[in-house]
Amino acid sequence: MPPFLRLIAFSLPTFVVIVALFLMAESLGWKEWQTAIVAGVIAFVYIAIIVRSVQRSGRGAALLNRNMWLIYIAYIAILWNLWFFSFWSVQIVRETAQSSLVAAALTAAFNAGAGLIGFPAGGWLADWAIRRRIGRKPLALTCTGVYSVLVLLFGWSISGGGKPSLALLGLLLFSSGLFFNALQPIVQGITGDLVPANDRGSAFGMLNLVSEIGAVASPVVSGVLRDATGSWAPGVYLAAGIMIVSFFLYLPVREAAPAHHEDMVPA
To answer: Each residue of 151-174: pLDDT tens digit?
Structure first.
C-alpha cells in the first residue's frame, strides 16, 4: 500500500475514535480524569496495533529492541514535562506569584524562549560530542540531571506558601528550559544512530507514538493534583520525578557510533 494511503488508513479511524470519545464524554458528563483514562486506553491499544504491525513487517529487531524501548519509554518524560509547562506554566506563575496575567505570561515565556537557544545548542553539542568520540549519552544524562534539579528547585520555590519573586521563577524557567530543549536533539541523535538509515523515519515515529502517553496524561494528571491539593508543587515534583526515572532509563542504553555515511563528515 502506498505511504499516503497507509497514513489515511491509520489516521481516519483514529480521528473517528477520538471525536466519538469526546462527544460521548460531553454527552455523559464525564470528568476530565475519566476522559483521560479512556484516552489512555485507546493510546495503549493503538500502540499495540502499531507494534504488531512493525513485528509483522520484519523490522522488529531494529525498532523494538531493548535499546529502542528504553529510549521510547524514557522520552515519555520529555513529552510529559513539555506539555506540563506549556499547558500550565502561566497559571502556575500567576497563582503562586499572585501576579497579573500579562506578567505571568511574560515570565512563563522564558521557558519557551529558552528553546531558541537550547535546541540549536543541543544539536551543536551532540555533533561536537560525536566528532570528539565522546558520545551523546553523557550529554543526555547531564541535561536530564541538571534539568531535574532545576525543576525540583522550581517546585520548592512555589511550595513555601509565600510569594516567590517573578525574577526567580523566570530564571528557573529559563535555565531549566535551556537544558530541557538541548536534551531533545541529543536524544533524537542517539535514536537515529541506533537504527539503519532506512528505518530512521519509523524509529522517530515510534518514539513519538510511545512518548505521546506523556502528552496525553500530563495536563490532566497535573490539573487533578492541583485541584486535590490546592498547590501546583505536587505536579511540578511529579514532572521532576518522571524525568529522574528517565535518567535511569538512559543509563543502560548502549549508544551506537554513527555508521551512516552522511554522519561521517569530518570536522
So the answer is: 999 999 998 766 788 888 889 999
Count of alpha carbons within 13 Å of 48, Cβ hemisphere only? 6
| C-alpha neighbours within 13 Å on the C-beta side of residue 87 | 20
Q: Which of 45, 61, 77 is the last residue of a domain?
A: 61
Position 233 pLDDT exceeds 70: yes
Q: What global pTM score does this model have?
A: 0.88
- CA dist 4 to 55, 69, 197, Å? 21, 27, 21
Quick one: 35 exposed, middle or buried, by C-beta within 10 A (0-12, 13-18, 19+)? middle
- Identify the residue whose cell numbers are 493503538: 46
Same-domain check for residues 53 and 39? yes
Q: Are residues 184 and 101 in the same domain?
A: yes
The residue among 232, 230, 209 whose CA lies nearest residue 219 is 232
Work out how many domains the chain is built from and give that number. 2
Residue 162, pLDDT score: 66
**CATH number, residue 212:** 1.20.1250.20
CB 265, CB 180: distance < 8 Å: no
Residue numbers of the domain that contains 11: 1-61
Residue 183, CA distances (Å) to 48, 83, 120, 263 in order: 27, 15, 10, 19
pLDDT given for residue 232 in this prediction: 92
Length of the chain: 267
